[in-house]
Amino acid sequence: MSTSENDASASRRIDASVQAELNRLRESIDNIDAAVVHMLAERFKATQQVGRLKADHQLPPADPARETRQITRLRQLAQSANLDPAFAEKLLNFIIAEVIRHHERIAEEAGNGGADGNGSATAAEA
Q1: Less CB within 10 Å around the terminal CB: N or C of the chain?
Q2: CA 61 to CA 51: how far, in whole Å?
Q3: H/E element holding 121?
Q4: d(CA 28, CA 37)
């Protein structure tokens, strides 16, 4: 049986009011997911500008002190929002890894190599 058949079968067994509430909640989740994607896109536009500015001025693509401050700040925000701070930190670290990759690429394209002259960086403008 396919997933859609399973979903359809499950829908027939669920009370209509429960299904309506489930649909409402899922629609809300879908809207939040869309907002998260758009916010991440805006964040990456800003970090791309930071990367270009740093490359233009031969600054290293990494800023470990800023990364540490951002992780601390995000953990505090997560805690106040009743979100697991460890999860928030993992998410930020994932984003930072992508920023590092972008900053290294920008520096390479500008002919600057990377943070330590060989194209590698250990942290990013977060």
Answers
A1: N
A2: 6
A3: none
A4: 14
Output b/e per residue, 93-124; b: 16+ Cβ within 10 A.
Answer: eebbeebbebbbbbbeeeebbbbeeeeebebb
Residue 67 has pLDDT above 50, yes or no: yes
Alpha-carbon distances, residue 70 vs 44, 74, 81, 102, 116 (angstroms) = 15, 6, 16, 18, 22
Does residue 55 surpass a pLDDT of 80? yes
pLDDT at 5 over 70: no
DSSP-assigned letters across all residues of 66-102: HHHHHHHHHHHHHHHTT--HHHHHHHHHHHHHHHHHH
| Residues sharing a CB contact under 8 Å with residue 99, sequence separation 6 or more, in sequence order | 44, 47, 51, 124, 125, 126
